[in-house]
Design goal:
- By secondary structure, this protein is an alpha/beta fold.
- It folds into two domains: about 200 residues, Alpha-Beta Barrel (TIM Barrel); about 70 residues, DNA polymerase, domain 1, CATH 1.10.150.
- It is built from twelve helices and eight strands.
Length: about 300
C-alpha cells in the first residue's frame, strides 16, 4: 500500500490542521496515513473523521521522545488511546514547564520575546520549539524556522540548559504496547550513535518489545538505509518509513512521502476496539480523557 507513517499536524508542531493534512495526503495518492504528533493524541479524532470522508486510512499514532538521547524517538501506532493518556498528561506538563525556561534562555542572549507571543502562536497546543522559532523569525532574530533551530534552539547549550520531562525508552515502548499498539524506532540517523552503539541500542529496544525500525526516511543515505535494513532483518523487526512532514514553513523541502510498504502488521493491532473501522476508534477517542491538551479544535496557524 502507498503509505506515509510519520507525519505531524498543528495539534503539535506542524503547519496544517489534521483534516488538511489528510486532504494533502489524498492528493499525494497516499492510502494509509499515520498521524504521529509529538506527545499528544489531540489531532487524532479530526484526522480520523477526515480520513473517513476522504477515503484515506488514518492510523492513530504518536511520537514519543525518550530520555536516553536527545533525538531518540519512539513511534507508536494503532494503540488504545486510554493507554497513552496518562503519559501524555505528564509530557504536556513537562512542555508547559519548559516554555518559560526557553524564554528565559533566549532573553539571557539578548533576544526580546514574551511567553504570551509564543502562546498565541501555539494556539492552545503544547508549546514546542517550532512555536518559539516562529516568534524568533517574526522578530527578525532568524531567517527561517530551521535557522532559528541552528542558531538557538538545537544547540548543545540549549539542550543542556533547557530540559523537560521525558520518559525512558522502555516506558515509551511499554505504554504503547499496553494499549495493544505497535512501535517503531524513528529516524535512527538522528540519534547520533556510531553503527556498533546503534546496533546495541536496537538490540535492547527489540528485547523490550520494539516491533519495527524506520528504515525509510528523507535524510537517510543509501548506505544508511541498507544498514538499517540489515538491522531490521537481524532483530526480526518490521520496516517502516515516513516523511516526518511538518509543512513547508516548518520543514522546508520535506513533502509527504508516498512509499510502497507492507503495513498489514501495523493495522493488525490488539487495542480492544469493538471493531476495526475508523468509526470505532473515533467513538473511543470521544470518550477518552487524553487531557494532553484541551484545544477545542484550535491549532497552530503559521503566518503567511
Amino acid at each position: 500500500m502507498i503509505a506515509d507513517l510519520h507525519t505531524h499536524s498543528a495539534a503539535s508542531d506542524g503547519q496544517y490542521a489534521p483534516a488538511e493534512l489528510v486532504r494533502l495526503a489524498r492528493e499525494r495518492g497516499i492510502e494509509v496515513l499515520a498521524l504521529t504528533d509529538h506527545d499528544t493524541l489531540d489531532g487524532l479524532e479530526e484526522a480520523l473523521r477526515a480520513g473517513e470522508a476522504l477515503g484515506v486510512r488514518v492510523l492513530p499514532g504518536i511520537e514519543l521522545g525518550a530520555a536516553e538521547y536527545d533525538h531518540l524517538h519512539i513511534l507508536g501506532y494503532g494503540f488504545a488511546p486510554a493507554a497513552l493518556a496518562p503519559l501524555c498528561r505528564k509530557l504536556k506538563d513537562g512542555r508547559d514547564r519548559r516554555a518559560q525556561r526557553m524564554i528565559d534562555f533566549l532573553r539571557q542572549k539578548g533576544l526580546e520575546l514574551t511567553l504570551e507571543e509564543v502562546e498565541e502562536t501555539a494556539g492552545g497546543t503544547p508549546i514546542a520549539r517550532p512555536h518559539v522559532a516562529q516568534v524568533l523569525v517574526r522578530r527578525g532574530y532568524a531567517d527561517s524556522v530551521p535557522d532559528a533551530f541552528r542558531r538557538y534552539l538545537d544547540t548543545g547549550e540549549f539542550r543542556r540548559e533547557v530540559r523537560r520531562f521525558k520518559a525512558d525508552a522502555r516506558t515509551c515502548l511499554e505504554a504503547v504496547k499496553a494499549g495493544g499498539g505497535k512501535t517503531s524506532l524513528a529516524h535512527p540517523c538522528q540519534i547520533g550513535l556510531d553503527p556498533r552503539a546503534l546496533e546495541e541500542l536496537v538490540g535492547r529496544l527489540a528485547a523490550w518489545g520494539l516491533d519495527a525500525l524506520e528504515c525509510r526516511y528523507p535524510t537517510h543515505t543509501p548506505e544508511q538505509e541498507a544498514f538499517y535494513l540489515r538491522l531490521a532483518e537481524t532483530y526480526r523487526l518490521h520496516v517502516t518509513g515516513g516523511s516526518d512532514f511538518h509543512g513547508e514553513r516548518v520543514k522546508p523541502g520535506v513533502r509527504l512521502a508516498a512509499l510502497q510498504m507492507d503495513v498489514d502488521r501495523l493495522l493488525e493491532t490488539d487495542t480492544g476496539f469493538p471493531g476495526s473501522g475508523q468509526a470505532d476508534i473515533i467513538a473511543i477517542l470521544k470518550n477518552t480523557d487524553s487531557s494532553s491538551t484541551d484545544t477545542g479544535g484550535t491549532y497552530l496557524r503559521l503566518p503567511p
